[in-house]
Specification:
Layout: H1 20-30, E1 34-39, E2 42-48, H2 49-61, E3 72-73
Antiparallel strand pairs: 1-2, 2-3
Helix pairs in contact: 1-2
């Protein structure tokens, strides 16, 4: 399978400096579960709804948490023309 066939063409993205509250609002508003984190046009991480829910509790104690504080860094990337083999079921 070609990666291009199952990827999102123009995904919603977020900056590492965005607040976790704003990032969580983007997830809910767009009914998605994860957002790529992009800085200077480069993918630097990914943040999930679970990451953000857990961080919102911490943000009550330490206001101002940013996406960069809770994102997973250095995600695996594929080129959209690369073939991808389905795992055996």
């Amino acid at each position: 399978m070609i990666v291009k066939k199952c990827m999102t063409g123009n995904p919603i993205i977020v900056s590492p400096l965005e607040t976790i509250k704003n990032a969580f609002h983007l997830l809910k508003k767009n009914s998605i579960h994860q957002i790529p984190v992009v800085s200077d046009g480069r993918l630097v991480g990914i943040v999930t709804d679970r990451d953000l829910r857990m961080a919102l509790v911490q943000d009550l104690k330490e206001p101002g948490l940013k996406v960069e504080n809770v994102m997973s860094k250095n995600p695996v990337q594929f080129r959209k023309i690369r073939a991808w083999k389905k795992p055996l079921e």
